[in-house]
Amino acid sequence: MIKMHIYMHIGQLSRNCSFSMKNGGGRTSRIRRRKLLTSSESRGGTGRGLMSKTSLREGQMIISLPESCLLTTDTVLRSYLGAYIAKWQPPPSPVLALCAFLVSEKHAGDRSPWKPYLEILPKAYTCPVCLEPEVVNLLPKPLKAKAREQRTHVQEFVSSSRDFFSSLQPLFSEAVESIFSYSALLWAWCTVNTRAVYRKRAPRQCFSAEPDTCALAPFLDLLNHSPDAQVKAAFNEETRCYEIRTAVSCGKHKEVLICYGPHDNHRLLLEYGFVSIRNPHACVYVSKDILVKYLPSTDKWMNQKISILEDHDFIENLTFGWDGPSWRLLTALKLLCLEAEELTCWKKVLIGEIISDTNEKTSLDIAQKICHYFIKESKAVLQKISHMKDEEVALINQLTLVETLWTEELKILQASAETLTSLQTAFT
């Protein structure tokens, strides 16, 4: 373990924290809505973190990072790339400008003033777009679909930008195709997507109409994630600094943690490349095909019931959580379990009214069957991953990440099954 105190001063950078990092450590992060936690239990696996050297009061400044330290589209426009961006048609997106700058500066090596920051960035990321296809195939179905959409988006982003990169050839002695390779651009895209803080800029003609809201903030990457953390973070227009303040007090020698928002593990893995253990926002999604899997195939009103759910936005975001099936999931099942003579009561179901004990019991029984289906699926996938870890040594890190996701989902499902069993006893 390498451990050092932060004594350098980045503008008004707080001197009240120390920094520790294991060799080769790294993590992905984005600060959108940041919060702070006063315990260090979430540190495992992150490799590095920020620890308070003194006790921190509620509302106390942790970090104040001057605007000049932020890497934004303004930084890019002031650089050697500015003239090329200004004349390129159609205008490139703000994200493309940031990615081009990151790749260019990384290629510059020792000549880049951003070298210290670039060197602490991960060499590779673990977002689904970076995972091998056989690992992506192991993801839960809803996440697998989003992972493939992410891969398609990045591939289109790179391919549609080739002409712009070609226009930069006068800046380099090597062929731009070798500098702005797919792997280099994937790294840059993941850097922006996982690590940027929110810093909105007014639209400019030299950029496309996409929102210009991303800024890379050196040093803030040292802060690790916890879903329970509480801080206030934003760009202060008066001080022209990106500031992070505690929302609760923090004891001496405690790790300072932040939260990216109330995201489930699918979102965290998709956007940031990690899974949060005991994440209170984690859940297991139930798709429409699974929703009707254990309902009578002879129900001639089923299509009409599905249409009602779709028309009233009750066919998506149906989940199992740590405290059992969500209200939305049970409500959807109650409607689907209505007898023909009860179907006229569907509006009452959607506002939470009880139709009959039979309807309540049937919906709970179906929820339990769905839950056990997912438990069986989770155990099967975990067993498959275990075998693959023995055979695919090169993929062990990626497989372990997906294994963690499924392990957390299995725990959630087992907790939900216990809750459902307790609810079912009221009707026995």
What are the key terms here?
428 residues, alpha+beta, five-stranded mixed beta sheet, three-stranded antiparallel beta sheet, disordered N terminus
Description:
By secondary structure, the chain is an alpha+beta fold. Helix content is 42%, strand content 13%. The strands form 4 sheets. A 5-stranded mixed sheet has the order 1-2-3-10-7, with no helix packed on it. Strands 4-9-8 form a 3-stranded antiparallel sheet, with no helix packed on it. Helix 3 crosses helix 9 and helix 13 (327-336) crosses helix 15 (357-391). It is globular and about 75 Å long. Residues 1-45 have low confidence and may be disordered.
Quaternary assembly: single chain
Count helical runs: 16
Mean pLDDT: 88
Strand percentage? 5-15%
Evaluate the radius of gyration.
25 Å
Describe the main β-sheet briefly: 5 strands, mixed
How many beta-strand segments? 13
Uncertain spans = 1-45
Query: In terms of structural class, how would the helical and strand content be classed?
Result: alpha+beta
| H-E order | EEEEHHHHHHHHHEEEEEEHEHHEEHHHH
Report strand order across the widest sheet. Answer: 1-2-3-10-7
Specify the helix fraction band.
40-55%
